Amino acid sequence: MQSRPANTRFPVHPWAACFAAAAMLAPASPAAAADTKYKGFFVALDYALTQPNGLDQHFATHVDASTLPISDERLVIDNGTAATPRGSIGYRLGRGLGSLQVTYWSFDNDDAQEGVLNGGVYPTIVGYTYGGGMYIYNASGVRFQATSKVQARPWTWISRGRPP
Amino acid sequence: MDLDFTRATPMSSTFTLKWLAGLRAARYEETQSFLGNDGSLDYLQDKTFKTDGAGLRVGVAGVFGLTKHFGLEGSMAMSFLQARTEGLSTATFPTGSIQTISGKDDAGMAIGRSSLQELFDLAASKDLLTFVETLVRVDGISYNTLDPLIELRSRVEMNTEGLLPEDFLAHYREVAAPEDALALVANLINCVLERPYDVSPFGHLRSGAFPKIVFPSAYQVAQETQRMARAAGLSSVASLIALAFAKDVLAASEGAAPKPSHTRSKAAYENFRAFILSLLNSYSRVRKSFLTKGHFYKMPRFEVLELLNRKPRFGITVSYFFFAT
Asked: I want to staple B201 with a disulfide (CB 3.0 to 4.6 A). Which of A64, A90, B31, B186 is the partner?
């Protein structure tokens, strides 16, 4: 979860306000009537900030037995936002028949957390193996570093081989 | 790559509905890693999922034309992908031991199931009556006694961080000594081998006559269970037991071998702890699965035995066997 922007004096980004004003003052564009009148190719580009949600990347459990009651907390990766570009090329059929388009997009998000915690830090990324679980304990501090990478992109014939 | 067909349908002079139907083929990857250091040793874990999916995509958008040149658009799209997922996780211990778990699935996200859960599933696929006897752990009459497996769980979950090496070794020996956990495993293996339920699966390891009966050691019981597991073709279960009931550490605690280092004792105990908790978690999950529905057992001469469960009261579930007529 990301904290809200601190700028509460002017909640709308100045660039967004300028864009809205420009859009309203611009000469009439064919966008509204495009579906019925315009026929031909078109290109669309998108660039947005995207945040992975609901992944719950629990990487360790921290137990500090030096306090009463014993504190026990889940350490979860804080997934931030990352840019998502998207490009489309399509053909509008005209006469209200709709349009066909092909879109390529990609998402690549890296997150990292590190710190030092007193007591036990028990990593949960793997869980239990034949060798058991991992129990990392140091009353004066366990140093840890956790990373996460989330990627998504369309499958393409050239780079990926056959689809499932 | 997304291939979409979109079409707009005017709903009023200011509102247009757009709908979308398309195809999506995409790859998703999720990678996590962890590095921990307790001041002297490094602990590493990492996990990767890779999913290739393809399927249908549908969506809808509403366009509100506020003025001739300015409007608002809200949209949502959803993909229904048939996916093939592969996952691999790796744990690197300070001892240099590298453990991996891999899994794959061709329908959606999935992870590898534990060997013990597979043992339960395999046992359940054989004779139902023997499996139920194994789950109930049919035994003689006992009074005012806590279930040994509940007691075992509480002792295994005990914090052992502050124990001295000698006390730690004694604790490992004490919690490993009762046969109950391995008796459960042994009877699950009996199910797999289609043998009848055995009230005392390690009775043949005892020697001497009453009152001077010599009971087998924890390690002997573990060895016997490993032998049974291998006979049933369950080599992964046998490996788990071998790791959990470490010969060098348990023999030392019985005075039959040199004393191991504290690091070795801790590693062996963690294996034991992981094995017991995994076993008890699977056991609890399978028992609870019986609460939701009735079961029918085909008897000779076209008779049917029916297992019914009464709704739990005060944490106790009563099960009945009926001969259906």
From this structure: B186
